[in-house]
């Protein structure tokens, strides 16, 4: 798994981890679609079956069953009317 965090997103994630008392950013599978898996970014904890990478002193985790999808991914964010939304590009 190779995942990094966009420079503009680092402080937002660090603040959210602190506010929610969590230690990692999780790439979580939420379903499957024609274009592959559907996923979301959530603040969480590292689990036994996770692949883990660290970027900007932030743990990024994903279950080993989906981590192979992320060979060159970037976590970024977008701010809008409904608040902050994370995305993987």
TrEMBL record:
Protein name as catalogued: HesB-like domain-containing protein
Transmembrane intervals: none
SUPFAM superfamilies, per database record: HesB-like domain
Domain Core: from-to ranges: 1-87
Gene3D superfamilies: HesB-like domain
Domain of life: Bacteria
InterPro entries attached to this UniProt entry: ATAP_core_dom, HesB-like_dom_sf
Organism taxonomic ancestry: Bacteria, Bacillati, Bacillota, Clostridia, Eubacteriales
A Pfam family of this chain: Fe-S_biosyn
């Amino acid at each position: 798994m190779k995942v990094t965090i966009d420079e503009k997103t680092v402080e937002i994630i660090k603040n959210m981890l602190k506010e929610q008392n969590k230690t990692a950013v999780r790439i979580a599978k939420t379903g499957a679609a024609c274009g592959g898996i559907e996923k979301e970014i959530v603040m969480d904890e590292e689990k036994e079956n996770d692949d883990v990478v660290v970027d900007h002193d932030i743990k990024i985790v994903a279950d080993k069953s989906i981590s192979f999808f992320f060979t060159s991914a970037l976590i970024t964010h977008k701010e809008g009317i409904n608040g902050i939304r994370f995305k993987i590009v």
